[in-house]
Amino acid sequence: MASVQANGIRIVYETSGDPRDTPVLLVMGLGMQLTSWPDDFVDGLVEQGCFVIRFDNRDSGLSGKFDQFKPPNLPLAYLKKLVGWPQRPAYTLADMAHDARGLLDALGVARAHVVGASMGGMIAQIFAARFAERTLSLTSIMSSSGRRGLPGPSGAARAAMLRRPASPAGREQVIEHMAAVFRVIGSPAFPTPQRQLRALIERSLERSVYPAGVARQMVAIVADGDRTPLLRRIACPALVIHGAADPLVPVACGVDTAQAIAGARLHIIEGMGHDLPPQLIERLLALIDGHLHGKMEPQARTPAAQAPTGGRDIHL
């Protein structure tokens, strides 16, 4: 894997496709790695004429770690959020957006389409708002504006995210724990086959395991707060994709995100949860292809009879 010094830390990245093609920067979510982007999704973007840039966020994968900070107290962080007390995260989501800009600087990429999933969608939102001159378009997938009052995770999803493996040092226990989490938050209508899910988890564990980084990233999310004022500054074309069955970041969060961005297009996929299941890769590629290449209808609401099967487009 290649790496660069960006924003003062080591960022590990991987590129796919022809550097002369349209740059697309992929930003992954909480605790995930650049390899968490499905191979079929990356290959599909390359086939559409994109130069795809993936990277490990700080404190995850093979990028720089923040061991100088102790693992945070997550229950205390959530309590502080509820009562409005100030947080002291090791770093912020804005810092992570600066990492992404630093990576583009190091690669000599002047402007890119930015696609983010979950926490990566939050980072992508900040990037598009603060670095408008570097952003060709924004795609925010299963993410949120962070506005106070939006619904939070279901009880099952919250419990799954906070639960620890029965034996953190046992490989099989960790695999089963992660599989259980994905089963809770994943797409009920598009379940990833068990064998494929296990292979993805094993691939991730072989590359990197770093729970402390996940906790610090989680506090960065909690501390970030309401991004609505930033979202109102976004002027590039924006697409918001969200699953109607997302138990971790409910669909109302996607609707709210799209409402805050002028001219944003919202696409809700029925039966999709908080993952990128193999059954939806072609649909996601079609949506992003239309967005990146200006093939989407810019105005009236798409009639239900013409909407893609299992999804609905909402023009705001």
UniProtKB/TrEMBL annotation:
Domain AB hydrolase-1 residues, every copy: 23-275
Family annotation (InterPro entries): AB_hydrolase (IPR050471), AB_hydrolase_1 (IPR000073), AB_hydrolase_fold (IPR029058)
One Gene Ontology molecular-function label: triacylglycerol lipase activity
Top-rank taxon, per record: Bacteria
Segments traversing the membrane: none
Biased composition range(s): Low complexity: 299-309
One Gene Ontology biological process: glycerolipid catabolic process
Region (Disordered): 297-316
Matches recorded under PANTHER family: AB HYDROLASE-1 DOMAIN-CONTAINING PROTEIN, HYDROLASE, ALPHA/BETA FOLD FAMILY PROTEIN
Protein's name in the database: Pimeloyl-ACP methyl ester carboxylesterase
Lineage start: Bacteria, Pseudomonadati, Pseudomonadota, Betaproteobacteria, Burkholderiales
